[in-house]
Batch of 2 targets.
Target 1
Amino acid sequence: MKKQEAIATVAVFIVLIFGLTLWNLLTPDRAFSYNENKSLQQFPKFSVEALFEGEWQEDFEAYLTDQFLARDAWVSLYVGVEQIMQKKDVNNVFFTEDGGMIAMDTKQSVKDTLVEKNLNRLERFAKYFQEKLGAEHTSVMLVPTAQAMLTEQLPANGQDMIFDQLALLEQARERVDAQVWIDAESVMAAHKDEYIYYKTDHHWTMTGAFYAYQEWMGQKGYKDVKLEDYDITVLSEEFLGTTYSKAPAWGIQPEQMLGFSLREAANEYTLRIDEGDELINGLYNEEKLAEKDKYAAYVYGNTAITEIQGGEKNGRVLMIYKDSYAHCFATLAAADFETVYLVDPRYYLFDIWNFAEEKQVTDVLFLFNAINFAQETNLYTLDE
Amino acid sequence: MVFSSLLFLFCFFPAVLALYFACPRKWRNFILFAASLIFYAWGEPVYVVLMIFSTVVDYVLGAAVDKYKTAGNMKKAKGAVIASAIINLSLLGVFKYSDFLIGNINALLGISIPMPGLALPIGISFYTFQTMSYTIDIYRGEAQRQDNIIAFGTYVALFPQLIAGPIVRYQTVAEEMMGRKENVDDFASGIHRFMIGLGKKVLLANSIGLVWEQVCAMGIDTLPMLSAWIGIIAFSFQIYFDFSGYSDMAIGLGRMFGFHFLENFEYPYMSRSITEFWRRWHISLGTWFREYVYIPLGGNRKGKNRQILNLAIVWLLTGIWHGASWNFMLWGCYFGIILIVEKLFLLKAMKKWPVVLQHLYAIFLIVVGWALFSLTDLGQVGSLMAAMFGLNGAGFATGESWYLLTSNLVLLVILVLASTDWPKKLAVKVQTMLQNQPVIKTVVSNVFLVIVFILALAYLVNGAYNPFLYFRF
């Protein structure tokens, strides 16, 4: 009796250990994880030197972890167990009652010293262009993210855990001229019951971006924007964004991604990426819509510089100094300027002042979401 | 390399297991020895030389002790034992304590001798104690000398207990080094033990460890009381499940290869006094110090004053063994003093207390002890203590405290239950209930095992968060 039980245990163990080992060995390696949006570690090249320094071993372990069989399913299982355990956040993601998710950026994830530096840089940026182009052509917009606006959807005391974006906005507002500051917080607050933030991604939706665009156009006295003026198309019904990637819980519904286009204007847009020679037609990268990273469909995603041609022939040139919140926003702004330059400080590390001079920029917009602004380490190009 | 990694579970271990059981008995020590060197060298390619050095030294000195003893020359035999102690303790001294010593000398004399800045070789505190035990055991006639250097090397380097114990004394496994009989029953019980250890480490210790990390990140100086206690209780659970989980895995792995190590933990948080706690916590270390320090110093046989002195020496050493830093010294002294007080009168007086009060007394002192242990910076320790006792003016609780508490409440309840022997009692009860239904019994126990393993894998894959606390010792 006892013997049989022992044999059964040994058999189960052998099957588990050797079975999974073999299965892992026989599964072909993947180069890229779409869910995590990162390249996966490949089998490391062996060298005696790397071995003695322990680098080879580190790479090999990373290789094993990255290539582990059905990696995403294991992480989903982890998230499921944590949810059963009543954890209020899993992998820095809050789960809301309506089956959505909200990214959680803790107080500890933001460094006060960096915030102070970035506020100084923002101030410098605003002052410089205000002097050069005038207050009516200079705008600063910091957008609070879902965790800062949808507070009633956070778990109890959840708000105490996260970085206070609204306090940061208050600080930033004091640093720039009132004419320059675009109050995204009030806009988002006014529409917070609408679908202005994705439930599986850290970005605002096209709708959220639209309201901010409307406010910006209005405040600058440029034009009156009405929702009815736009044709709205569904770009995808299958969007599962970055928040989902961090905590891929079972049963999360994919989301809709929209495209807005001005009905009256028959604009033909062309894009130029990173000052290359190729001209691309259209504002959307359709290929990305078929992949995991669908948000990158808007103006071709993260680049150092994206140049958009084809808006109103008014001789105006807009430079948006931005993070990815500007990508869907730019599909709206493209109509109002002859040229729009999207400049991303994470990739464009050259002199921004020269750039504006060279491109004969007439208008500038500083557009970041508040949490990115607080955590961004690449704004040093704005330093003196 | 650590057990709770994909590397160990799906590369190293299957390979060693297959090789080990495919080969005839006489090769098996060599396979374990070679595997252990790879296991060690994986993260420390250079320091493996130190371990081999310590092994060779004690192999030679052990043989010398044996030779002199047989020749009746006890003086020379003793000399060899002393040589072993000096060499091993020097290794420890240089690689573990030199920065600490020089730093303190510099601070004291206001000079600046450059520090060597050597990285601590993994497991050095464990294997030096093991090799010393061999030579001393031969001298005392409690073990035979081991002629086969591979067998001896296997004992020192044996990967299950190499980097975090238990500290296996040579006499415990002397016979099994040469004539062990692996069998299915041992193998199966080893699997169970390993899985339980894996679960303790990956599911419990790592999870609650994140809470301690979170609390630390909030800034020790400004913690409200509740957060401070959540933090230090989290640390108390982390260190117990981390370390005892590791011991379980070591004992389980040993058993799969036919070794029987002694138990290292016996539900320490169920203790009713600190004296009892130290009989249940890291038993192999306590035994080592008792056998090789306390008793040779005279133990309790030379009067009360001498006993107190002996206890003080042992606890100072126990403290400093845990790390080259003042807080560990303080932690050792703390327990030394409590143990002396208990020995002098408190233990007797406590017998009249209600049992609940005895438990509360013990657990309170243990947790406060962990506060001394958890942070190597004495200033930080002070801040944590101030926070725990509400002396930093940060109040009782903030929203963060309540969030931490409610978000981890289920985990905390599980940890409390898992610290007791109730789960084990329940398992025994279920097993007796199913005694006449061997099939169901087999299914139940294996399903449990598979679930623990699958969940542990999910947690491992999810997190690169997989540190072993006892690495620094």
Note: Chain A has a mean pLDDT of 91.
Target 2
Amino acid sequence: MFGYYMELAVRSLRRSKALTALMILAVALGIGASITTLTVLHVLSGDPLPGRSGSVFMPQMDPRDKERDDHPDELPTQVTWADGMNLLHAARARRQALMAAGSTPVQSDDLAIDPFIVPARYTTADFFAMFGVPFRYGQGWSATDDESRTRVAVIGGELNDRLFRGENSVGRTLHVDGADLRIVGVLAPWRAVPHFYDLNSGNYSVGEEVFVPLGTARAAKLKRNGGIECWGNKSSDEADMETANCVWLQFWVQLDDPTTVASYRRFLDGYVHEQVALGRFERPAVSALPNVMQFLDQQRVVPSDVRLQVWLALGFFAVCLVNTVGLMLAKFMRRAGEVSVRRALGASRRSVFAQLLVEAGVIGLAGGVGGLGVAVLGLAVVRMQPGASAELAHLDLTMLGATFVISIAAAIAAGLIPAWRTCRIAPALQLKSQ
Amino acid sequence: MLTDVRPIVSTLRRHRLTATLLVLQIALTCAIVCNAIFLIGDRVSWMLTPSGIAEGDLMRITVSDIGPRRDLHARVETDLATLRAIPGVQAVTVGNSLPFGGNAWNSGLKLDRSQQSPSATVAMFYGESLVETLGTRLVAGRVFRPQEYSWVDDLVAGKATSSHVAMVTSDLANRLFPGESAIGREVFVGGEPARVVGVLERLPAARVGAREDANNTLVMPWRMVPAYGGGYFVRARHGEAARVLKDAVAALKRAEPRRVVVEARLYSDIRGRYFATDRAMTVLLAAVSVALLVVTALGIVGLASFWVAQRRRQIGVRRALGASRTAILRYFQTENFLLASMGIVLGMALAYGINLLLMRQYELPRLPWTYLPVGAIVLWTLGQAAVLAPALRAASVPPVVATRG
């Protein structure tokens, strides 16, 4: 029966080509626009650490003085050197890492290659294991390397391609900013989207290519950059950052179950109270421990324009759908005569209804295919836009499936009212008027 | 024309669902297009925000040294001399940020040292002769004197003290001292006092949060160094910026081959990047608006064609009974006008609703009422244009159709 309905549908659609094309085009444009914008939203609001974001937390506190009361209700998202080191050495979480952003010139042994600047991260040993960073060669450094400020580095795959043509470079030397570091590991491609562990370097900034133990980076005076907030009149010269009244480091911990989360919360609260009692913290003892997704939500990472675009596309889709319903209704009603004959010859209301719905479904399917084309085109245009986030806009399987489900559901929903109206035509009336 | 209204209304009643759908489509289109045009206007006016600097002649070159950095100040002076020697260079300095340039340096500003919370968060600009290099207009007071400048790295390390003077923009001056002259007044920036010696026409921040705070900025008498994130700001003779940029990069590389040029851009390029997302959004809004209008127009054509085909016999009868072609044409035009009007009325209400939502989400101003008549005219015109071809086809139905079964 379905095959017969399909044949009828195709035949009927062929009869009015322009109208069919118009309906398919409207559905395709509406779906294409919606899928494009939804994909961008889906990518940008994604989970940077799938499977582990729920167990990675950012301890927050407020070490600032009373003088500058800029955002009393907003806790800094960074810590001072003193607090970072205290929490790191307390080692109360399963894993913890203290880090800062840098950018460092890299020189190649090949003199034909000009020195170039790459984004760097100065961090501690647990960074790789806590964030599940994959290695292609070698491994990260140890906590001992952190303490002894060993001159080692982990490099990204892209830098390894550029400097060593993708060979295993473990054991070789990396020349950065006047310091020589021994490479202990090379990463497989990895990028956290959003760049959650340090939003100061851009919500969707590209991954770092050089990773150096924090202590080593400080000892070798590697260039630091990134967000910094200072208070008071103490020197905030680069050489004095260990004692400066500035928050400039990010601190993250891994806590695997609710019990450890609760006990870490108590520990953090105790630490903050202790600092207030010691007179180091001047503001009220407040602390927080959001996990990755809570933190991203708090920081409103997804650009508001992206949400606006989704609403715009959905509005457009709604107009396209209304348009299609209207046209389909007109088309079905015009076939009142044909429907009456079929009804008079014994076709049940149900079978007429089913047949018309199949016709609507065919339009939906064609619109979905067209919509997919529009979305692929739309995403290609998005990727041509400037900005670190644009290049991330790729269609994944979820969105691909969603396209077809949405298009067929939309077309059938759009066909429902017209089909129902048409199958209720009383056969006698129509036949008589002919 | 008006005589047609009654028969039209009774016909539309019989096609209530189709008519309702068309009205709904026109209403949605009207609401979305009104808001989209409003958003476009909002973005465009933002993108055209004047910077008050010599945009066409400026460029920024950022370099990064490799290895330990010694003799910071001497190096800066050498580089500046190198740049000044390039033909076509009018002025050059090391500055911390440019209007809409990306990296902002913010600080809290107080009028009284003991004040609990700051009166404003201001973006700070510094660099020797920055105002003169950028071409910012001074509207009151004076610019800094040469002896008032001190090196920013010495200040940060506590090796020097500031000369306690500052220049503010007229926007900030009016905000801090409404109705009074700001010259000679004292402000506290990051806890340090500074006397206002000059008022600038405008100098928008490098990164703007709320647009009305764009000119919450001041200039400090600090000499910037590249190692602190400063860049060389070069102003070229008019029309020579592109060549000067190329020469300047080459000269800086020649002076010290062991360094990396991180950025070398004309100001127009820097500004273009800052507004890139706004430009993309504007294009998107415009494209969606056009697509909406096209889809709606095609929808009207499609529906009208169906109605004409469906009513061929009735039209024939009317023609046979003496109705002129014009009368038939008018009938369909009036019908479309009525439907469009209903859509527009509903669309206006919807437009305001959407605007209210946007106001809450995006801190947008209220939709000015002038958008409504413009939107109405656009949709009426669209409807009439779309219905013309089917209506003409209806008008050409010969009376003889009435006699055919």
Note: Chain B touches chain A through 55 residues (CB under 8 Å).
